[in-house]
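chain below, 569 aa
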Amino acid sequence: MSWWLTNASRARAEQVALAQLLERAGWLSGVGWRVGDDLQLIVDFDIQHNGETFSLFMAYPSTFPDTPPMVLSRDGKRLSWHQYGAGGELCLEFRPDNWDPAITGAMMAESAYRLLSGESPEGDEDGVVRSAHQASLGRDARSEQMRFVLDRDAIEVLVGLPVDAPVPITAWDRLEKPTWVASLVSVGDGGSIWSHSGPEPSRSTIAKGFAFRTTREIDSFRANPGRFAELLPAEFPELAEQLPGNPFDGFVLLGDADRWIALNLYPHEGKQTVFGYKMIIAPDASGRLPAGHAGLVQKRVAIVGCGSVGSKIATTLARSGVRKFTLVDDDIFFSANLVRNDLDARAIGQHKVDSLTARLKDIVANAEISMRRVALGQQESAGTTESVMEDLVQADLLIDATADPRAFNLVAAVARRHRKPMIWCEVFAGGIGGIVARVRPKLDPIPTIARDQIRAWCDDHGVPWAAAAQADYGAQREHGSLLIADDADVSVIAGHASRLALDILTREQSIFPSSAYAIGLAAEWIFRAPFDTWPIDLRLEGEWGEAQEAASKEDLKDLLASLFPEVAA
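prediction:
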């Protein structure tokens, strides 16, 4: 129900305030009230200034006085630079971001007068009314379906190009209905002048073209891109001579300084056709990660298990700066996995490692990923298992995200023998919580002993460890029980495991006083409330590395003689 039907006193106060303003303000006239569609209360009024009449109306929303009324042009004209398009709402001093219910419609009318009179001062002086806030990039571009994204460092390169000299470029473009997006990839033959450091989206195509720095007038091509094809031979002969085909198929970036337009030229029925793109300048991406993360580009992380936990850890580490991964999993992604995995429907029917690799390459550029479609610890040949374990040795950090004790044992063996730090986690079914754990060579017990210490700690508190340890994060294998937990439960535990991983990879001195934590997500078991966290102290125990002493020549000779007596004879 409209506000004025239930708040008659406020409606009467609005009427009185505008009547009083009409009496004292010589610039206001034509005040008249009406009811619009859906019983919306509307007041028409005129503002006079410098012999000109501005016909306006003010529409009170159904949520007034909690939200402001809107002031618009009655004849659909553009009245101000502070207006959301021709006929659109005026952007006044009182807006949703600074609105107070005590503000009246009369105050809105006065604000409209200050705006319109400020932009049309007496005499020949141009009027400029400063904006109280900046329009968002998203709002400016939401009606633009063709968009060309340009980084600020790319603009610095473009403005350094010689004037009136075409320079080859490449760009990626991609259709994701209803938007067609393109972005600059390189400048110069083979990227000799500049190359973009970001990833190229999957399912995008690479198009060639030219950047042409010019001081000539180009603004008319923004509104009428087709005019560029008509004027190209006469106005830009230097560029026309370099185009490899007539009609040309590719991009042209045209402009100078901070004024650039993007044009997509392509042949249609043997003629040159041109589409214009909305140029969008991307914000600076620097400074969004801690300084200590810079070294992550040199680190390799091996993740065994690309299910709900492993996929989330992988994408978090990629966003944090890791570029090198070894991914191990033989599962295929199905629609049932959508409830928790970081992948989406595009991965259905694919091996998880394949789709996760594609996802990581959509997040980071120049990703170096080794994919192994192998179920570590399952029915695989000895040679395949050995090959995977050799891959794991190359990693700086090992992460077991399988919830499978057989896989854990093999990853733990690599960690112990080759003195590699290792992380694993367990998600308790039913949304109770979970456990995250790490072991570091010479600082923590070897992985298998650490697992025993955690199991003993859990047994002391009555947790059904076997049920937690056998939960299947992938929910596809025949062994074990399915994990009954939602995406939020898994994300919390995977996020904490990722935090442990980053701590190992970026710090010499850990910020975590303990190496294992039980994290509650519900007031059950030992947890008194959600997010109740219990540290689990691990005692250094076991020998990291190959502890056996090298056998003597005599011992080896005796061993060979016993194994191969026919050779020894």
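Confidence is low (pLDDT under 50) at residues 466-470, 475-480. Residues 503 and 510 are 6 Å apart (CA to CA).
thats it, cya
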